[in-house]
Design brief:
DNA-binding transcription factor activity (chains A, B), mainly alpha, 2 domains, homodimer, Arc Repressor Mutant, subunit A, transcription (chains A, B), HTH-type_TetR-like_transc_reg (chains A, B), repressor (chains A, B), DNA-bd_HTH_TetR-type_CS (chains A, B)
Amino acid sequence: MPKVSEDHLAARRSQILDGARRCFAEYGYEGATVRLLEETTGLSRGAIFHHFRDKDALFLALAHEDAGRMAEVAANQGLVQVMRDMLARPEEFDWLGTRLEIARRLRTDPEFRDGWEQRSEELTAATLARLERRKAEGRLRDDVPTDVLLGYLDLVLDGLIARIASGHASDNLSGVLDLVEESVRRK
Amino acid sequence: MPKVSEDHLAARRSQILDGARRCFAEYGYEGATVRLLEETTGLSRGAIFHHFRDKDALFLALAHEDAGRMAEVAANQGLVQVMRDMLARPEEFDWLGTRLEIARRLRTDPEFRDGWEQRSEELTAATLARLERRKAEGRLRDDVPTDVLLGYLDLVLDGLIARIASGHASDNLSGVLDLVEESVRRK
């Protein structure tokens, strides 16, 4: 395939993802109709679904994109830094509110759940690798199993996503994240 | 009003709330249609909406009922115990998944948000009172402001609700809650 065409495809794909992200953030998962997706991407349904099989595929592609970005930060600076970034720019993470809408489907639709879990594995792996490294450096507390520390950070992340989604990301959350960071550190 | 009639009203009200709780847990907030509410409560729409103005009012009444029960546990045993109870009997808290569905409305509908916040104030007040008491007894850490500790516990609670709603309340969460409890305690 000639290079110009590959570039074109990548640009189109990214145009669709950007539009879909805004669309999900504004209207929610259920509310993001094909018509609204056409409006926010500026493309026809034919073009959109040429690149992505269906709305689920679009959604999982966005989740994958986010997980990749978050994993990069988590690998270098830790999951708490991922959370600080979310707190600093909640508007970029608005679309994550749709994660909450899909909670029911995660519980009841095994195929969808598998797709979702594959996408979040990257972030889990990056966080775990960093925790292991910090532990080896003697900077992580060693009186609690690493998987519990991971589960703890993950639970706080879920709480933060819920908070941002409901527009309740209040002032003292920065202090809360200091406390979270300190409580996994070696005393 | 004669006593028998008051008893009857209270019983009817509680029958409606129990049915509505099951209905929300099973079908979600949007999915809980009037027809389904009739089925799960075993009452006509006329009877249901004689007691509760609309679906929002039903929802907020359930939230109020839960907040009251949780506040009682929080006042005596703390918010972490509330979370341990949720973890031990996740099926009773399934309906809380609807809290996630309504996140968008909390963000965009001020009247609904006010109603919701009034209902959760009781739990916040009970948790705060216990934290202050523990602090006075010297059992709470005093190097972090109490409102940050409260915000921290609240954030973990939000995470736990999200986790239960998506059916991902995994084994190591009990260890995670030990860590949470320890991190607010005086060393």
